[in-house]
Amino acid sequence: MAEDKELYGYEEDDIITLEYDNGEEEECGIVGVFDVDGKDYIALNPLGTGEIYIYGYKEYEEDFELIDDLTDEEFEKAIKEFESLIDAELIEAAGAKMEKFPPITMPGQIIGNLKKDVVDFGYDVPVIAIAGHDTGSAVAAVPAKDEKFAYLSSGTWSLMGIESKDAIINERSYQLNFTNEGGVEGTTRFLKNITGMWILEQCRKEWKAAGKDYDFVQLAKMEQSAPAFRSFINPDDASFANPQSMLQAINDYCAKTGQPQPEDDSQVARLIMESLALRYRTVFSWLKELADFPLEVLHIIGGGAKNALLAQWTSNSIGVPVLTGPTEATAIGNIMMQFKALGKVKDINEMRALIAKATPLDRYEPQDTAAWDAAYARYVALCEK
Prior knowledge:
CATH superfamily of the largest domain: ATPase, nucleotide binding domain
Helix content: 25-40%
Number of helices: 12
Number of strands: 15
CATH architecture of the largest domain: 2-Layer Sandwich
Structural class: alpha+beta
Largest sheet: 7 strands, mixed
Order of helices and strands: EEEEEHHEEEHEEHEEHHHHEHEHHEH
Strand order of the largest sheet: 11-12-10-9-13-14-15
CATH topology of the largest domain: Nucleotidyltransferase, domain 5
Radius of gyration: 25 Å
Shape: elongated
């Protein structure tokens, strides 16, 4: 970082005074508090300089402590994490001003207390920064035992990804339209959006309007009764984004790709679920290609985790075990980051171990893999051109 000019500007509340053993004092702006390996650190900028000081940081109810006896390893890790969070020179080069940016608040930090003039409960209510995004909280709640997992946040839309220590930015990730998002404890959510239950939900609306109000139990029975692997769609094809009639869009896609059109509602439902499971295989294969660690299990979280048939078909398709749950992952991830801020759990590993112990999980092992491999080859030839 440049050291010949001031890079940061601060509000009065974001300035602290350091007192040294020789009696000297130095005012510093708080750049941010961040987490490395379950420990908090604070980045300070001495006013009028471009320097950065890194200290260990502990916050108490009415005070805080700066820790300067860091080991070389701790300091190097903290510097690396800080530099991954903010690049002042890049911000200046873009014509922005650092004083326009508030201090960085990382997930699992206590921001302050709820103001009494908002709601007065008669006691202090801490305001805690959580993952800041519904998917971020959901992924924090994945009950994984180690890093060798992918996740599928399943609902109207699906998000499939991995948790990476660093952003994955290369030509291949760009071509495949993957996203890097900041996660908890300095991790990166590397993921891709996939159309989820949207297509089936739109078909249900059309069926209901025609007097056929199928619930999900009925749909599962219908899907199992229909012939397997008759026709496929690519759920992410633009024609399924918001057509006037989803049923007609499916028929048109089948006609365009030279496949038989569904003959009844059961065949429509099965086509959608099989196609989702096969699309998941495509994205899962890309994740295996881009990850620098093996992927041994897929965790399905969110409302779609209740769909046992889709979970089994997904396991059959991708060829690894699938674990489902929790369904309310966003809420649980939010709660667990509050637990961390209050010192009830040490880090994300303890969070996930507690979630795995407290949440019912269902496990699905791959079945009929030869048939699914053959179906996938047909699907790719027809739908992934």
